[in-house]
Amino acid sequence: MEEDFDVVIVGGGPAGLAAGLYTARARRRTVLLEKGVIGGQISLTERVENYPGLEAVGGFDLAQTMLRQAEGSGLETHYEAVLSLERVDPLWRVTTNDGDYRAKAVIITSGADFNRLEVPGEERLTGRGVSYCATCDAPFFAGQEVAVVGGGDSALDEGMFAARHVAKVYLIHRRDELRASRILQERVFADPKFEFVWNTVITEVLGQEQVEGVRLRELPSGEERVLPVAGVFVFIGHHPNTAYLRSLVRMDEGGHILVNEWMETDAPGLFAAGDARSNSARQVVTAAGDGATAAIAAERYISSRFPVE
Amino acid sequence: MTMTKPKEVNDAQFEAEVLKSETPVLVDFWAPWCGPCRMVAPLVEELADEYGPKVKFVKVNTDESFNTAASYGIRSIPTLIVFKGGQPVGQVIGFRPKNDLKRVIDQALAS
């Protein structure tokens, strides 16, 4: 089955929801395709404290509010995974696991996915002690010791959430200093439940049915040891979800889509916004701003390319 | 459309409601603080309607029924487990679209 829309939006994070709000209000028939959870990364964030106008809000609640607002303006939402895009001049065909869509303009807001450690044991023990969301899973480790991997804002935010539930957090970082914002650093350094393991990487996650520990390697000595922990929470950055667009648009070497100030890619009628684009500040508010910009650009493109007779 | 609300089951009721059930049971392990669980809940309600009496749908609040969650090694929610004859025969960890859930249920029923 093939369905016709003015605009197809790929990905339901803040960029996609903002874009959908704008194109729906412009009365362009718009569908947003989401393969997982509405809100994307923020739906797994306990609190968003830096969205102007909202002093502190749950990430999941913020995403649901954005969704309600956009759907209230006429946005349709379908839960499907996009497999490929194809130019069928002057339209785009978007193929999902559930069918095909044709659109005058497509806005790519497929965001980024978390990086994995890519060590033995990780995949097998995911959901069995290996987690990428302390906010979701930390309560299952009450009174136990866990490892948190990473040195950025997410690692610290999630580590502090975990610390409220667990007996101890080993913060494992491959460098000897954190790159997280100062305010978060001040909080973790003052938290007695944190123990810092500097210049160290995990080389294996150990355990049969459940995580029982991690094998650590200290850098640069290469010395290895086993740290017994019940959980491993991994926050070592993200990569853009753009593999399905390779060969269609220009990207940087990290796989982020190259766009101009109007979020236009080098392909006609194809826009990219949020974490999937190059040089993104990767904030909720900048993603939403990107989405609005892309929507306005898409609206202009449709008006000029598909004039009403 | 009438929605069949999946029944809340606690530690004390788990054996009678799930392990001794004549029909296969889908158990939705959830907690109020878990965002993705709130997205799974309406899908589970829709599935409960669609499967009708063929499958029993229940929910276990992992905050209140910690023993049941622990005995099935739940370390992440949402987790859905399909039980047949008292045995777990299918499992989904994390939020997945409805069609994926259906596939797991159908596979478990056919097993």
Question: Which features would summarize this protein structure in a list?
Answer:
heterodimer, A: 309 residues, alpha/beta, FAD/NAD(P)-binding domain, 6 helices, B: 111 residues, Glutaredoxin
What would a concise description of this structure say?
With 309 residues, chain A is of the alpha/beta class.
Distance between the termini of chain A: 28 Å
Give the total of beta strands of chain B.
Answer: 5
Counting copies of identical and different chains, the oligomeric state is: heterodimer
Q: What is the C-level CATH assignment of chain B?
A: Alpha Beta
Q: Provide the structure class of chain B.
A: alpha/beta
The largest chain-to-chain contact, stated as pair and per-chain residue counts, equals: A-B, 31 and 23 residues
CATH topology of the largest domain in chain A: FAD/NAD(P)-binding domain
Strand content of chain A: 25-35%
Query: Quick one: CATH class of the largest domain in chain A?
Result: Alpha Beta
- Helical fraction of chain A equals 10-25%
What do the pLDDT scores of chain A average to? 95
List the helices and strands and how they pair.
The complex is a heterodimer of chains A (309) and B (111).
Chain A: E1 2-10, H1 14-25, E2 30-33, E3 47-48, E4 57-58, H2 59-72, E5 76-78, E6 82-88, E7 91-96, E8 100-108, E9 112-114, E10 130-131, H3 134-137, E11 145-149, H4 153-163, E12 168-172, H5 182-189, E13 194-197, E14 200-206, E15 213-218, E16 224-227, E17 231-234, E18 238-240, E19 270-272, H6 284-305
Parallel strand pairs in A: 1-2, 1-8, 2-5, 8-19, 10-17, 11-12, 11-17, 12-13
Antiparallel strand pairs in A: 3-4, 6-7, 7-8, 9-18, 14-15, 15-16
Chain B: E1 7-8, H1 11-19, E2 25-30, H2 35-51, E3 56-61, H3 66-71, E4 79-84, E5 87-93, H4 98-110
Parallel strand pairs in B: 1-3, 2-3
Antiparallel strand pairs in B: 2-4, 4-5
